[in-house]
Specification:
The chain folds into 2 domains: about 5-20 and about 230-415, Alpha-beta prism (UDP-n-acetylglucosamine1-carboxyvinyl-transferase, Chain), CATH 3.65.10.10; about 20-230, UDP-n-acetylglucosamine1-carboxyvinyl-transferase, Chain (Alpha-beta prism). The chain is elongated. The chain has helices spanning about 20-30, 50-60, 85-90, 100-105, 125-135, 165-175, 190-200, 235-245, 260-270, 310-315, 335-340, 370-385, 395-400, 405-410, and strands at about 5, 15, 40, 65, 70-75, 85, 110, 135-140, 145-150, 155-160, 180-185, 205-210, 215-220, 225-230, 250-255, 275-280, 280-285, 295, 320-325, 345-350, 350-355, 365, 385-390, 415. α10 (about 310-315) links the parallel β18 (about 295) and β19 (about 320-325). The chain is of the alpha/beta class. The protein binds uridine-diphosphate-N-acetylglucosamine and phosphoenolpyruvate. Uridine-diphosphate-N-acetylglucosamine (UD1) binds next to α1, α5 and α6. Cell wall formation. Adds enolpyruvyl to UDP-N-acetylglucosamine. Keywords: Cell cycle, Cell division, Cell shape, Cell wall biogenesis/degradation, Cytoplasm, Peptidoglycan synthesis, Pyruvate, Transferase. Its EC number is 2.5.1.7.
Amino acid sequence: MEKLIVTGGKTLSGSVKISGAKNAVLPIIAGTLLGTTPSVLEEIPDLEDVRTISEVLGHLGVSVQREGDNSLCIDSTNITTCEAPYELVRKMRASILVMGPLLAREGESQISLPGGCAIGTRPIDLHLKGFEALGAEIVLGHGYIEAKAPHGLTGARIYLDFPSVGATENIMMAACLAKGQTILENPAHEPEIVDLANLLNAMGARIRGAGTNVIKIEGVKELKGTTHAVIPDRIEAGTYMVAAAITGGDIHLENVLSEHLKPVIAKLKEAGVSIDEENDGLRVRGAETLRAIDIKTLPYPGFPTDMQAQMMALLTVAHGTSVITETVFENRFMHVDELKRMGANIKIDGRSAVVEGVPNLTGCPVKATDLRAGAALVLAGLIAEGQTEIGYIHHIDRGYDNLVSKFQGLGALIERVD
Ligand SMILES: CC(=O)N[C@H]1[C@@H](OP(=O)(O)OP(=O)(O)OC[C@H]2O[C@@H](n3ccc(=O)[nH]c3=O)[C@H](O)[C@@H]2O)O[C@H](CO)[C@@H](O)[C@@H]1O
Ligand SMILES: C=C(OP(=O)(O)O)C(=O)O
C-alpha cells in the first residue's frame, strides 16, 4: 500500500499554482454529455476523480481524450448505453451527475445507487424528486435507479428542501432540454454551480440566476459542444493557505479567485493569519500567535465543509479553545481520532468538535479516512515532531493535483513510498 511520509518542522515558502476545481470539473464533464458535437475543456486537474468520471463517459460510448497537459476533448456525439455501473459509481459518488444529462438527452438512465460514504449517508432523494417533477418515472431495484422519460421532460417549478450542490447541478442539466420553463427555488449557490451554468449556456442552454436564490431554465431543443476553462479550486487553495498558516510560512498562491474564498480568508484572518492580494494572487503569511476561533460549516457563501478538517488541523495548535460545528454532513469528524493520535486535544459533542490548542503535535502512523481528512493529516504532519506516515492515500489522490510535488516545491519534506 502506498503511503505519504511527512517530516515536520519546515517553514513553507514560495509560490504554488492552484489547479482547476475538482467540484466544478466533475459536473462539467457530465454536462458535456448534453452536447451533440465535441467539447474542449481546459484547466483540467490531474485527479483520480477526473479519471473515474472519464471512465464513466467512456462506458457510455463517449470518447474522452487528454490533450496536452491540462485539456480534455470530449466527443459525446454518440451515446451507446445509458448505464453507469456499480464499479464506477462506488469509486466516486459524483458519477450520479450523468443521470440528469442522460435523462434529458436519451430519455433514460440506469445508475447504480451510490450508497453512503465515510462522511455521511448522503441520500439522493432531492435529485430524484427533481427528476420526477420534470416528468421522469423512477424505479429502484437490484441496486440501480432506473429513470425514464420516453416522451421527454417538461419544465416545472421545483423547491429544494436543502440547497444540495449535486441536486442543483443534476436538475439544472436535466432541465436544459425540457419543454418550457423550469424554476429551481432554494438551489445551491456554490461557484461550481455558476461555472456549470456558464458551460451549459455556452453550449446553447438558457439558464439565468445561477448563484442566486432562483435559477430559471428555458428548455431548448439541442445543445452543441463548446470550449470552456474550469475555475480554480477554492478548496485546494484553502488547503495551501492553511499550510502557510500552520508552518508560520509565507506562500504566494497563483490562479485563485479570492471572491470564492471569502469565508476561508475571514476565518484565517480571525486566527491571526495575514492574507493580501498580491501579483494577481494571494500572499498568505503565518501568524506570530495563532488564535483559537469558532467555525460553523454552511452551504455557500458560508464556511465550506470541505475545509473543515484542514482548519481543525490548524486549530489543534492555536492558543485557546475552538469550537467547530459541522452542519452539512452528519458524520464528518473521522479525522478527529487520527489527529488525536498525533497529540491533538479534541472532544466531539454532537455536531461540534471542541479543540483545545496544544503546544505541539507528534508524528505517527495515521490513515486518511476521506479526501479532506487526508489533507488535514498532511497539514498536521508538516508541524508534527518527527515523521507522520499517512496510509489510505487513494482518498487524497481523488482530489489533490500533484500534492507531493506542490508541497515539495514549497520546501516541505514529503514523499510517496510503497
Ligand atoms: C463533487 C462535489 O461537488 N462534491 C461536493 C458536493 O457534494 P454533494 O453534491 O454530494 O453535496 P450536497 O450539497 O448534495 O449535500 C449536502 C447535504 O445534503 C444532503 N442531501 C443531498 C442530496 C439529496 O438528495 N439529499 C440530501 O439529504 C447530503 O446528505 C448532505 O448532508 O457538495 C458538498 C457540500 O458542499 C461538498 O462537500 C462536496 O465536496
Ligand atoms: C466530499 C468531497 O467530495 P465528494 O462529494 O466527491 O465525495 C470533497 O471534495 O471534499
